[in-house]
Amino acid sequence: MIYEKVLLVEGEEDKRVIPELVEANGVQWGDKPKDRIVEIKPLHGIEKLLDKNLINIELKASGLKILGIILDADEYPSKRWQSIRNCLIERIPDLPEHLPQSGLIHPGEIKVGVWMMPDNRERGMLETFLQFLLPENGKELWRFSEQSCLQAKKDQGACFKDCHSDKAKIHTWLAWQNPPGRQLHNAITERILSPASPQASVFMQWFTGLFEV
To answer: What does the pLDDT look like over 24-54, one tens digit per residue?
Structure first.
């Protein structure tokens, strides 16, 4: 099947969350493959998302007009941007040295966009971005969730990796909602998380500007 607009993401969680976030901000995603505004391809890991050969294959795909890439900054945002920049620089030699704070949208025969979670600047990941969507009346409980995760790690032998602390925090917070333990995309659909935050607005400006929806 030929796709004119493709979004590459790291994993299945991104594939579930992004359409719900976009729809919650007023842009219909489409249920059937032929109706979807963008085809999301999860590559199952940052290593594959930073594979220059794989990205070149996507860029050469028949009928492609727009390619978006969403990846996590993790601990070193500048290094992560340089890694994805290196994957694209042969085909797009005028890429900026630094990722724009509003995300990259590069026009051309094939339009290319890059968004680095959480906000193109800070360390973090999808789950860090979702912290921006906490409702005002949930922030006190959020602080308690943070403290609980830190204490569980320090005193109770919780074995999550430090780099995954943002995942532990958001899932802890969600475990204390009604109903408890909703998945991330459900939390957006059901407005446990608020999709109308200022940070979500910046992301939506990038998304709609890139994919022209």
So the answer is: 999 999 988 889 999 999 999 999 999 999 9
Calpha distance 98→82 (Å, rounded): 8
199 Cβ neighbours under 8 A, 6+ residues apart: 118, 119, 129, 132, 133
- For 187, the 3-state DSSP assignment is helix
Q: What are the tokens at 141?
A: 């409980």
Dist CA 23 CA 156 (whole Å): 40
For the chain, give the mean pLDDT.
96
Quick one: which of 62, 55, 29 has its CA closest to 41? Answer: 55
CA 190, 169, 205, 30 torsion-angle sign: negative
Residue 73: CB atoms within 10 Å = 23
Joined together, the tokens standing for residue 200 give 């979500």
H/E stretch holding 49: helix 46-49
